[in-house]
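Before we proceed, please read the two lines closing this message. Let me know whether the structure tokens fit the sequence:

…
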Amino acid sequence: MTDARPAPSLTSQAVWLMMAKTVSFAFAIALPLLLVRRLSQQELGLYKQAFFVVTTAMNLLPLGFAMSAFYFLPRERTRQPAVVANILAFLAGTSGLAALLLLVWPGFIVWLFGTPELAGLARLLGVVVLLWTLGSFLELITVAVQDVGASTAFIVLAQFSKTALLMGAAALFGTVQALVVAALLQGIVQITVMALYLRRRFPGFWRAFDWPLLRRQGGYALPLGMSSLVIQLQDSLHHLFVSHAFGPAGYAIYSVGVTQLPLVGILRESAGAVMLPRINQLESENGRLQIIELVARAGRKLALVYFPLSAFLLVAGHEVVIFLFTRRYEASWPIFAIAVSILPMNAIVLDPVTRAHSERFFFLRLRLIVLGVLTTVLALYASELGLVGVMASVFTAIATIWLVGLWRMSRMLEVGRTELRAFAPVAWIAAATLAAAAVTAVVHAMVAGPPVRVIAICAAAFGAVYATILGLSGVIAIAEVWSLLRDLRRAATGAGALFGALRRRSRPQAPSDPTAPAPVNLVAP
């Protein structure tokens, strides 16, 4: 634990983690595409409900406590095993209570979703919740200690084993119970790997529990965790009302419509994480104009992705839904259209600004108010609204928070007409997007044939118009393109060096020469 070898650079960490996330996503996307073809709508709805319990529990039950590893491990170097033991004890306690609830009262999950068929799966799901919540600490701890090689391997292998087990269960048995049993096996595998890793990395961690340190960790993490809890509830509650009002088959259509697009969340969260420390520094230096410029530059880069993605899917999304999920889920298209309309809001990143200006409690109150109104509306009128109406209500809630946040940020930063000029490139991107969408809509109306043919032709038309207008407007400078290419080349060089180091470490080492200079270690111990 006192090894002084240097940690890998931030670039190396980012390259490897992004590679791991990308490969992991490639494995994960295959599963729903198989399930929509292997299971009936009723069975797919049951599967979505069952695993909604697991994933929601994994997000809610830690209450942000595991994130204390990032703060306390560097500061408590002599008590790192205690930090780990405390986190595991907390996760075991919260997930254990949830598992006990489902073991003792299987009807709870029936009450939650209004689906009697879930009663027979409740006890198995309780065990899966316990194992997956505990096992989720493996990915986090490897990142916290900057063990890039291990974190990359665990992210990829965990997703591969989960996808393989679940796809095997779907292909061989084709039942929801088989999928839950496969998830239980995955939990056992991940817990075993985590125990072996922690035993090597933090010897004796299982007997290092420290109550005073646990209280300090809780004081740091739980306030942030409660704010995250509200956000998770806002993102999750509408699923429960849809399940109650429309049953498993209706929920299957709804869940396909609100499918998460690849890497969209990662891009937004990455931008926020990079901006937060810089905005904190600028706020302490009274750098109001610099903060506005930073938000505008980030908005330009995010808009280059979010605006065209949303517009293209609004034009050709009907064929995308059919191509990915078959015509059985064609009814998901209107829900999908509303969901992708949320994407442009992500271009202006508000969270780092509100955090730097101590506005978290204002937005926590705002989220609680909006959540209360949304919950009341869905509780009373979900059946009358229909699936599309429920999604429209969710869109309204998200848009309300975003618009109030935009107004609040403009007031804090005193944004006037002069400052708005910094956002001119975002306006150009919006104009290019609208023009490309208009042309693509005309092409879409003229093209017929299989969905993949329509998607390809529309994508070519959209891309040509979008790129031409951006090039003529000067939104993307040639120097910026060359800079991006140089950054990618450096990242590739760093990844190659890191891969070579990992490969050398895996080979048997010859006896070292004490007179030879020490090699540079690119991987954290």
